[in-house]
Specification:
heterodimer, A: 479 residues, mainly alpha, 71% helix, 0% strand, B: 387 residues, alpha/beta, Rossmann fold, 53% helix
């Protein structure tokens, strides 16, 4: 059940209505049931996997604690269970294929047959939530005793498929408090759902076609085609995933829950470090807390001096980030590219964009450097290694003019990117909701906004359906 | 990696968590809602109330607006318009029903005149052709046709290859849309039949309950209305239509639109129908549900005293030679089904030559094409109308 499918448009209001009609003590149970139904609508047998992982993590969580002498063993057991599930379903086939390819190169026979496993949707996300739970318990946080409350944490359907990655303390606090109907939260939820739908259907799906056209025919791309196609993919990825996140956050708010943010105007980032505080934030801060800090403090890197240690920890963390995104050598490459880009960005920030420079120059230079390095790293996301090198080749040696895109399409890409930056800047400076919330006219403007945006999104959805027979998937759908 | 909330700060120390945090997971939590303003709360309540009223009003107006827009999009050949026109006229002697070729391949006035002169009495012919519909929908349609008194003397059930295919997803998906348009929710039997026939009964029920869900696809017609308005304005102001507005709209690309307006089939029309045929006949298999519906259609009609004959509609020679296996399988299966159901097949599948002036595209005849097969069709139907 995709967020942009008619089935979800039916499922969500029905679930919301039932939820608020029930007495508050039954609402968590109802949400767990609805979430399992949502998960089963994709592939019922995989419900067993989420059941199993929930059961294992709940059982370990019940006995885990600072006073338990076997706390480290329990932590290791939980990590093995969670990372093991992720490893088997997500990485086993890839490792097997890679080993087979290496063996073929060496003229050897790889005895294991090629494994093809279907990746359960949301697995990468809820295993990270389980890992966070177990590590925090190990560090001394209190466990969730109630099995329903615990089951709801990973299963909560708005965040089940592609996050945002929740922290259990924040989420469970809300479950315990039993959210009461708050019109402001509900209204904001509706606005987020329609905005997310708009971002996905109107912008991401349309600009994504331009990226696909370039990457699908990279050998004929000119220099401008190659750069513009990459920029189109960057824009598509942002609108696709931030659209998804908006629908997830909006859906959660319809049940009274407020879940983490994932994006904070990333196109305005003026350094790589700044970018990671604006892009897929729930993953970034998860990696910071559970990979970067532990790596930095580990004995593994203790022989290094502080600065090289930080750099190595950054590269390794972003390598994990890359591999988390997918089982493929392109994702390994993307992780390394992002890691080294962050290191380069830091070096340049200290040595090139000095504090004594005019601030506008530092900001402009930092912004250009960040976006340039990001675009180079992004090429590896949708392409194979060979495909990415083809794009890189044309980014440097491509001929003049345009071959795949037209001037209008090029203008469209640049206008969407530039327009988004302008809108994000304006919204952050003058938040429209803050500006109008005390004006009586907001009671009319906000519904008008919701209806208007929903109508435009539905129109584009229909226009797309006239061309394609099914709604386009979210890029982060099967993670 | 992010190590500090201050964006531009350079960290050279080994990574370690900051000692003091204002709020756990502050960095990713959504901003706290301002709860101090009663005015903001009151405005939010009012906005929600307006939204709720808007949603209810939307349900009330969705169906009429949707019917109007669908009619624009399909040049008056959407299921609702077809059905309304049918019930507004006297019951015909001969009724041709089926997917869109039932409408494009039959010239009902010419056929009626020919049958009348041959038989020596007034024979009225009507046609009901529904784009992309399968026997599943036609089964429900026949129920509604036979509820109306008196009944047609002969039902000509136009079936070709694609609409019998269980693998034609687009055909199956269109069932709910057709059923919404011919629904009679005051008739429990119709509801029961529709629920049994629709491959997606949950969607059907949702559309009945929330018409906005059923009719939002009609928004596509706004494109055509806007384009027409733009052309009119351009003609008035510029005394001509700019090139950008000359491209055919989605409404002008339908077979129904081209049927009476286009002199001959273009290359792109043919190529489009070739691609559609390939898509519609993928994984070709006549499903048990389709067979069951065909059986029900015939049984229901005969129970009401109406004869049924199957009509295999013309298929462009180019398509026939491009997909010989599919054409052969569908032809044999149709004849085998007819034999099992004890009914006849009027086979016009290869009766029209490769002459672009006779075709809208590879699947539909144009007005000249319909006239071209008229005499042969009349001859085939005549025995069923003899007293």
């Amino acid at each position: 059940m995709l967020f942009n499918s008619p089935a979800y448009i039916l499922f969500l209001p029905a679930a919301v209505a039932l939820y608020w009609l029930l007495p508050s003590r039954f609402r968590p149970v109802m949400l767990v049931a609805a979430s399992y139904f949502f998960y089963a609508s994709w592939n019922p047998p995989f419900l067993l996997l989420i059941f199993f992982l929930t059961l294992v993590n709940y059982a370990i969580g019940r006995v885990q604690g600072e006073s338990n002498p076997r706390r480290k063993s329990l932590l290791v057991a939980s990590i093995v269970a969670n990372v093991g599930a992720l490893g088997v379903f997500k990485y086993l086939g890839w490792l097997d294929q890679s080993a087979d390819a290496v063996a073929s190169l060496l003229g050897l026979h790889w005895p294991v047959p090629i494994i093809h496993l279907l990746l359960p949707i949301g697995l990468s996300f809820f295993t990270f939530e389980f890992l966070h739970y177990q590590i925090d318990l190990y560090r001394g946080s209190a466990s969730i005793k109630d099995p329903i409350r615990f089951a709801l944490f990973p299963a909560f359907f708005p965040t089940q498929i592609a996050g945002p990655i929740k922290r259990y303390q924040d989420f469970d606090e809300q479950v315990v408090a039993r959210p009461r109907f708050d019109p402001r939260v509900f209204l904001e939820g509706i606005e987020l759902v329609v905005l997310g739908l708009f971002k996905k259907v109107v912008i991401a799906d349309n600009i994504g076609r331009l990226a696909f056209a370039v990457f699908g025919d990279a050998s004929h791309a000119t220099l401008i085609d190659a750069w513009a196609g990459t920029l189109a993919f960057y824009v598509e990825l942002y609108f696709d995933f931030s659209g998804y996140t908006d629908i997830a956050r909006g859906s959660a708010q319809l049940f009274g829950y407020r879940i983490p943010l994932n994006f904070r105007a990333p196109f305005l980032a003026t350094s790589f470090q700044d970018f990671w505080q604006r892009w897929h934030m729930s993953l970034t801060f998860w990696l910071r807390d559970y990979v970067y800090y532990p790596l930095g403090q580990s004995r593994l890197l203790s022989a290094l001096r502080p600065r090289p240690r930080a750099m190595v920890a950054i590269v390794l963390t972003l390598l994990v980030c890359g591999v988390w995104h997918g089982a493929g050598w392109n994702f390994v490459g993307m992780g390394l590219a992002l890691g080294f880009s962050l290191v380069i960005d830091r070096i340049l920030t200290v040595n090139l964009w000095r504090r004594e420079m005019p601030s506008w120059l530092r900001i402009a230079g930092g912004w250009g450097q960040t976006q340039f390095l990001l675009l180079l790293s992004m090429v590896l996301f949708p392409n194979s290694i060979a495909g990415a090198f083809e794009v890189y080749k044309h980014m440097v040696t491509g001929g003049p003019g345009l071959n795949i895109l037209t001037p209008v399409k090029l203008l469209e890409i640049v206008a969407v990117f530039g327009g988004t930056m302008a809108v994000q800047y304006a919204i952050r400076r003058w938040p429209p909701r803050e500006l109008i919330k005390n004006l009586d006219v907001s009671a009319v403007l906000r519904p008008a906004y919701a209806f208007g945006v929903a109508t435009i999104a539905l129109y584009f959805a229909v226009a797309d359906a006239a061309v394609t027979s099914s709604p386009a998937r979210f890029i982060y759908f099967q993670f | 990696m992010a190590v500090d909330t201050e964006a531009r700060r350079e960290t050279v120390a080994a990574p370690s968590p900051p000692r003091v945090r204002i709020r756990l997971h502050e960095e990713i939590l959504p901003p706290v809602l301002d709860g101090s303003s009663p005015r903001a709360l009151r405005n939010a309540k009012r906005a929600l109330a307006i939204l709720a009223v808007g949603v209810v009003v939307l349900q009330l107006i969705s169906a009429p607006i949707g019917h109007r827009l669908n009619s624009v999009a399909r040049s008056g050949t959407d299921a609702y318009s077809e059905w309304q026109q049918y019930v507004s006229r006297p019951v015909p002697h001969v009724l041709v029903i089926g997917a869109s070729p039932a409408r494009t391949d039959v010239d009902e006035e010419g056929l009626g005149a020919q049958l009348s002169s041959a038989i020596g009495r007034q024979v009225m012919v009507e046609k009901l052709g529904f784009a992309g519909q399968t026997p599943l929908f036609l089964d429900a349609l026949i129920y509604r046709i036979m509820k109306r008194q008196p009944h047609p003397q002969l039902i000509v059930l136009a079936v070709g290859g694609p609409e019998l295919n269980d693998g034609c997803r687009a055909c199956l998906a269109s069932t709910s849309g057709g059923l919404w348009d011919i629904s009679d929710l005051s008739d429990p039997n119709f509801i029961q039949i529709a629920l049994r026939l629709d491959p997606n009964p949950a969607r059907l029920v949702a559309g009945w309950m929330l018409p906005s869900l059923a009719y939002y696809p009609s928004l596509l017609a706004l494109q055509c209305i806007a384009s027409d308005a733009g052309r009119s304005a351009a003609r008035a102001v510029l005394r001509g239509v700019p090139r950008q507005l000359q491209n055919p709209t989605v409404c002008e690309s339908t077979a129904a639109y081209k049927w009476a307006r286009q002199d001959s089939m273009t290359r792109s029309d043919y190529d489009g129908s070739l691609a559609n045929f390939r898509e519609f006949t993928r994984d070709y298999r006549v499903s048990p549900a389709m067979q069951s519906s065909l059986r029900d259609i015939i049984a229901r009609s005969r129970a009401a005293g109406t004869n049924v004959v199957l009509l295999e509609t013309p298929l462009h020679p180019g398509l026939r030679s491009s997909f010989p296996e599919v054409v052969d399988i569908s032809h044999r299966q149709l004849h085998s089904l007819a034999s099992n159901l004890n009914t006849e097949v009027v086979d016009l599948s290869d009766s029209v030559p490769d002459d672009p002036t006779l075709w809208v595209d590879g699947l539909h005849l144009d007005r000249s094409g319909a006239t071209f097969i008229q005499a042969r069709l009349a001859g085939e139907l005549m025995p069923y109308l003899q007293p």
